[in-house]
Give the backbone structure.
Amino acid sequence: MHQVQEHILRIIEIVQETPQVRLLRVEYPKGSGLTYLPGQFFMVSLVNDPDVKVGRAYSVASSALNSDHIEIGFDKVGVFTTKLFELKAGDALRFKGPYGKFAFDSSFEGDVILIGAGTGITPLMSIIRYCTDRPLPNALRLLYSVRTPESIIYRKELEDHKGKNHHFDYTITITRPDESQERWNGKIGRIDVSMIQRAILHPQTSVVFICGAKEFVFSMIEMLEGMGIKKEQIKTDVWG
């Protein structure tokens, strides 16, 4: 159903979402039959760059129903993303995919719990956007951890989705408030058991999607399993 394809796609928009993170939108290959599930990723590589021949995996942040563009998000953490930061609208990238089992199945009828840290929100945003676009009746709850308020990706859009989708709610927690220039009145500290317990109202029938760095994902799994959440209820996307 979701056959792997390769396309060279033109950048149509670049958004400086936070001081560190950019969102990059490329044209959707119309007429190609390309489809993907919310949460899946594409292998992205540069076109005709002799210095960087190897691409990287980037989760799609756009809704699977969006036929205007495909969106990815990234921060400047290495050679490849440094190259991405140099690109401008009109430049092209090679997209190959979709790939991955970290995917939301719209036939699932239970609660959907999304847990992410930093740029790990990108595939979770794809699920949020998709569930709102459908719209689906699933209860949808996001737990999102970032260092400072300035680091919150999709800050305004999350609030917009909460207004549009009455099944959706989210909690943002800040781990390094002392490094922020903004006063933060919300939650502080890492995502903990009590926070997860408040989000999962139906432990036996929920599915949990976790995305972030290895240490973060493993700590979330440990807490979930300690609460009695079964392995088959947990989907993970580990970065790094």
In short: The longest helix spans residues 121-133. The longest strand covers residues 5-16. The chain has two domains: 5-99, 112-239. The chain has a mean pLDDT of 95.
